[in-house]
Amino acid sequence: MSTIYLAGGCFWGVQKYCDQFEGVVSTEVGYANGPDAAPSYDDVCGSSGHAETVRIDYDPQRISLVKLLEYYFMVIDPLSVNRQGNDHGIQYRTGIYYTDEDQLPEIEAACDAEEEKLGTPLVVEVEPLKNFFSAEEYHQKYLEKNPGGYCHIPTKYFKLAQSSKGE
Fold first, then answer.
1. What's the confidence (pLDDT) of residue 162?
2. Burial of 38 (0-12, 13-18, 19+ CB in 10 A)
């Protein structure tokens, strides 16, 4: 089992999106890479410095980190600073946070490929995970509990794994 932490704007959508992929074992939304004090959602919305982030536990025998990052880049704007869709603020920055140095070559390769595709440097943070605090329970699987909730990710992407199996 491996773990990666992805910040991609609103964590509700990133969680729902990543949950669909075979090999993703579990996800949890939370707040990462801010000050060491555990924040509340109100703190994060008040510019605490944390990023809305999804912890993704995955089986690398079933889905590679490179593939996960390919999916990640499909639903974020890697050139946007502190903004994804209609959401803006430091908590909506993009980031790939790792706890295993062995993941860094794959992360760098995925970012390099995306930069080459776009022809410009990305603004996605690539850093070791400094901290991660679980978000309040009502945020966990929020879009499952509230199907009409706002998300910057188009709903068609929540069925990407399903549609690719039919091809």
1. 77
2. middle
Say whether 111 is catalytic: no
Among 45-49, 93-97, 140-144, 159-163, name the one with the lowest average pLDDT: 159-163
CB 155 within 8 A of CB 13: no
Q: What is the domain count for the chain?
A: 1
Show the domain range for 110: 2-165
CA distance 74 to 67: 11
Distance CA 77, CA 17 (A): 15
**Per-residue pLDDT at 165:** 53
Contact status, residue 76 vs residue 84, Cβ threshold 8 Å: yes
Average pLDDT over residues 38-43: 95
Residue pair 160/20 in contact (Cβ under 8 Å)? The answer is yes
Which strand (E) or helix (H) includes residue 71? Answer: helix 65-74
- Residues 10, 18, 111, 151: which is the catalytic one? 10
Distance CA 12, CA 2 (A): 21
Query: Which amino acid makes up residue 61?
Result: Q
Question: What percentage of the chain carries pLDDT values higher than 70?
Answer: 97
